Amino acid sequence: MEREDYMRLALAEARKALGTGDVPVGCVVADRDGRIIGAGRNRREELKNAVRHAEIEAIEAACAAVGSWRLDGCALYVTLEPCPMCAGAIVNARIPTVVYGAKEPRSGSCGSVLNLFEERYGHRPAIYGGVLADECAGLLREFFDALR
After folding, report:
1. Which end of the chain is more exposed for a tag (fewer CB within 10 A), N or C?
2. What's the predicted TM-score (pTM) here?
3. End-to-end CA distance of the chain
4. Residue-wise pLDDT tens for the chain (148 aa)?
């Protein structure tokens, strides 16, 4: 599969958040063979928990699937640029590749506000941004337009 195919799976996860009132962000983690081993969506409103971001959900599922906190050889695909908390989780899980869709100008930690992956942590994933960015941003725009 191509990056766009994985991002479409992340978009499908994001759409699941719409019914709960959560910001529609979705994420999938693929192993080195390209199999999806983790998926998640924002669930902060649903679970009334500030840390229930899509990336956290997907990383937890992937760790459970492989039986380890290390996700070496995996790639994370998320519809919105990760925040500082999620960037920290990516570093701690040792995920080598991060692919995101839309930029997050207020809290994006892959270059929009700062790039936490350029800091002197012991792990620095490769970052690929802008994959299906228009579609990812469009879903977010629709959500926020409906709130207004």
Report:
1. C
2. 0.96
3. 37
4. 899 999 999 999 999 998 899 999 999 999 999 999 999 999 999 999 999 999 999 999 999 999 999 999 999 999 999 999 999 999 999 999 999 999 999 999 999 999 989 888 888 999 999 999 999 999 999 999 887 7
Rounded Cα distance, 16 and 78, in Å: 14
Active site amino acids? 55
Query: Among residues 23, 63, 72, which one has the least CA distance to residue 43?
Result: 23
DSSP code per residue over 78-121: EEE---HHHHHHHHHHT--EEEEEE--TTT-TBTTS-BGGGSS-
Distances (CA, A) of 32 to 20, 43, 103, 125: 32, 27, 26, 14
Other C-beta atoms lying within 10 Å of the C-beta of residue 70: 12
Q: Quote the tokens at residue 59.
A: 């990383």
Size of the chain, expressed as the number of residues it contains: 148
- Dist. CA 66–CA 50, nearest whole Å: 26
Contacts of residue 7, Cβ cutoff 8 Å, sequence gap at least 6? 77, 79, 99, 101, 131, 132, 136
